[in-house]
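Continuing the batch. This is chain 6 of the set; chains 1 through 5 are on the previous pages. Same settings as before, nothing changed between runs. Recording input and output for traceability.
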Amino acid sequence: MATSRKKKIIQVVDIVPSKAGKASKIPIVVSHVAPGRSDQAENRSEKESSKDSLRQLDPETVFGGHTHAENAAFFTQANKRPSLDEELSGSGFDADDQTVGGNRRRMRRWVKILTWALSAVVVGYLFFAALYILPRVDVTLVSKKVNWEFHDAVMVNKNINQIDTSTNQIPGQLFTFPSTSTQNHVFSFTPTGNAYHEQKAQGNLTIVNTGNPAPQKLVATTRFQAPDGKIVRLVNKVTVPGMTGSTPATITVPVIADQPGPSYNIGPISKLTVPGFAGTPKFDMYHGEITTPLTGGFAGNGPYPTADDIAKARSQAEQKFQEILVSSLADNLGSDFQIVDGGARIATTSERVNAALDSQGQFSVYIEGSLQALAFRTSDVRQLLASMASGKLDDPAAYDATNETLAYRSAQTDWKKGTMMLPLDYTTTFVHRIDAGAITNGIAGKGEIDLKTYILGVPGVEKVTVVFWPFWVSSAPKNINRIHVTVQ
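Output for chain 6:
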């Protein structure tokens, strides 16, 4: 069944004040649903009653006699949203609300207590740190220093066994190296001559004794003859050892060809006889053997060592030989002993020049001998110098030599007397010793004035700088780990 709608138009007063101070009338459509009526009937009824339904309503009638201001206040209060506490107030949750509120109050109380406790701990720690952890003192000391130099000579004397400060002498010791034998070396040189020249071949020959138990001496230039008649001669005198039992005795010696030229570059040869023993039993007892061919035999144009080359080669070979022996002796003596230029000499037992050029085009100088050296201890030199400088120091035992430089110059040695005049150059800075540990213990807990007074009373202190930290600290901590002493 269709329903019909009936509409009424009424006027109500707006709550907004008008210009004249009275409420204005606003038409409002109000719908009513009337059952059992058709839409057509409803429309007809509306037209008939529209004039009667439209009427003005008095504000006092609509709002129950209230004034406009009272109604505005009413709507304002009605539209205000209540707070959470107001909404919960009066409900069935009052007991729970009181419990939650109590818990919140207790929680806030504990938070305040913990905050105050933590603050107290922090403040206490800061106070403790300010008194015992942060305070520190840095002390910088400048010790007394004395510069000293010596540029003169001291005497090294093998005839004394202790330092003589009155005459500036130190003990020396004479060494021979090798002590019981000799050493030999061969040094090669390049010739500068180039012209026609003749040169004899040279090499080594082994002398064999097959029947004589006694030693046999042979002079230099002794001849040994090859099967083809060529002669080679001994360069130096030699003693051939005697036989021991049935074993032949041998010795290898240098030889030189009797004549120049390449035809004497002979060898190997198993047996060379000794013409000087011909007609005697020794002729069969002794013979020579060449295992390595002789070399250097030459006749013609080519390089050769001049007399000047040979003289220079001898001098250089002797110098090199001495340097080798000095180095070997120094290694045996240790680092404390010192051998200087002019304090050593070689004693040669054999020296010869082989003018024959080898495969590299060089001639050679052979030297055999030993070394004599007048050595001294470096510690004795320093002790003597310290004694000389002691007159410049107020308390020599309290000073240490630092930044030392010591250089020796060429010495002059009197080998007969066993003395050596040793020129030297020496510079040093003597520094007064200061015990930083003792000062650290001594200033612990002292105020600024007492601290400086204590330090300035320490012998050898020339200058002191004290820095307290932080800025409010005016005394050294009792904890020595917070005291830093630096000595310069």
